[in-house]
UniProtKB/TrEMBL annotation:
UniProt protein name: UTP--glucose-1-phosphate uridylyltransferase
Source taxonomy: Bacteria, Bacillati, Actinomycetota, Actinomycetes, Streptosporangiales
InterPro entries: GalU_uridylyltTrfase_bac/arc, NTP_transferase_dom, Nucleotide-diphossugar_trans
SUPFAM superfamilies: Nucleotide-diphospho-sugar transferases (SSF53448)
Gene that produces this protein: galU
Catalytic activity: alpha-D-glucose 1-phosphate + UTP + H(+) = UDP-alpha-D-glucose + diphosphate
Pfam families: NTP_transferase (PF00483)
Annotated family: Belongs to the UDPGP type 2 family.
GO biological process, one term: UDP-alpha-D-glucose metabolic process
Length: 308
């Protein structure tokens, strides 16, 4: 049931962890952050910030690390480039360059060493303070039409506590995610989370509903994270902290609810899914599809013939 004793505070801030080493994409990420790898002509992290802004979160904190300066540069003004484009009267590209620097108020804090997602979120405590906040992982891009983050904010406003995005995955994939034990509520797309297990073996998973890279966290998560010992992989896991909050009442930072997401999710965390994402985004672009799709059909047809 929703907490009727107090109205939950509004969510106004987003936290975007971006301190990972991007080892899956080496050598491309040796000097370029994985978050800056392009999805057609925009870096992946810009789509994430645009999603936060679309949900009404214009205060964005990036958790960065070494060799992430290009992220800061991307969301800053580029005066020499803007002047060059202005001189060429290239208004379209000038507006595109300006757009990233005008999206949101972007702040930065460094995670000194990669100690897990929970530790990255804890690095946001000074900026977030005693307010609920969103966490958006850059590996997951959500379809523009799905408004997942906005729905999660609505659920937080109704029930309080924390909210996770859940997506049903195949049994052989559950060991790649944090998985939730759930109970129904009075809403078809909202469940109560009763337990969370980080990357369980398939035969020990509480369900096939996996946490994807969107969270709304109650500020109580910070105190829990400070007391959370390193878990799987020697890292401080956000899942472990949320599991603790799931067992608490409203006056102690709980409960935890899940939004059952059945929309479009793009996973850019590995090479094959990254390539799929680029192709899908290109096919959805009106300025590219007319030329790209016929070529793609022809290319696939040739490959099919070669495989026969």
């Amino acid at each position: 049931m929703a907490d009727t004793h107090r109205a939950p505070a509004s969510v106004t801030k987003a936290v975007v962890p971006a301190a990972g080493l991007g080892t899956r994409f080496l050598p491309a990420t040796k000097a370029t952050p994985k978050e800056m790898l392009p999805i057609v002509d925009k870096p992946a992290i810009q789509y994430v910030v645009e999603e936060a802004v679309s949900a009404g979160l214009a205060d964005v904190l990036m958790i960065t690390g070494r060799s992430k300066r290009s992220i800061e540069d991307h969301f800053d003004r580029a005066y020499e480039l803007e002047e060059a484009l202005r001189a060429k009267e290239d208004t379209e590209r000038l507006n595109a360059v300006r757009a990233s620097s005008e999206l949101a108020q972007v702040h930065y804090v460094r995670q000194g060493e990669p100690r897990g997602l929970g530790h990255a979120v804890l690095c946001a405590a000074g900026h977030v303070g005693d307010e609920p906040f969103a966490v958006l992982l850059g590996d997951d891009l959500i379809g523009e039409r799905d408004a997942l983050l906005q729905r999660m904010i609505e659920v937080r406003e109704t029930y309080g506590g924390s909210v996770v995005a859940l997506m049903e995955v195949e049994p052989e994939q559950v060991s790649l995610y944090g998985c939730a034990a759930i109970e129904p509520t009075g809403e078809d797309d909202v469940v109560t989370v009763t337990d969370l297990v980080e990357k369980p073996p398939a035969d020990q998973a509480p369900s096939r509903w996996a946490i994807i890279g969107r969270y709304i966290c109650d500020p109580a998560v910070f105190d829990v994270l400070r007391e959370t010992p390193p878990g799987r992989g020697g890292e401080i896991q956000l899942t472990d902290a949320l599991r603790e909050l799931a067992h608490r009442g409203p006056d102690e930072g709980g409960p935890v609810h899940g939004v059952l997401f059945r929309g479009q999710r793009y996973d850019t965390g590995n090479k094959v899914d990254y390539l799929r994402t680029v192709v899908e985004f290109a096919c959805d672009r009106p300025d590219l599809a007319a030329e790209f799709l016929p070529w793609l059909h022809e290319f696939v047809a040739k490959r099919d013939v070669a495989l026969d």
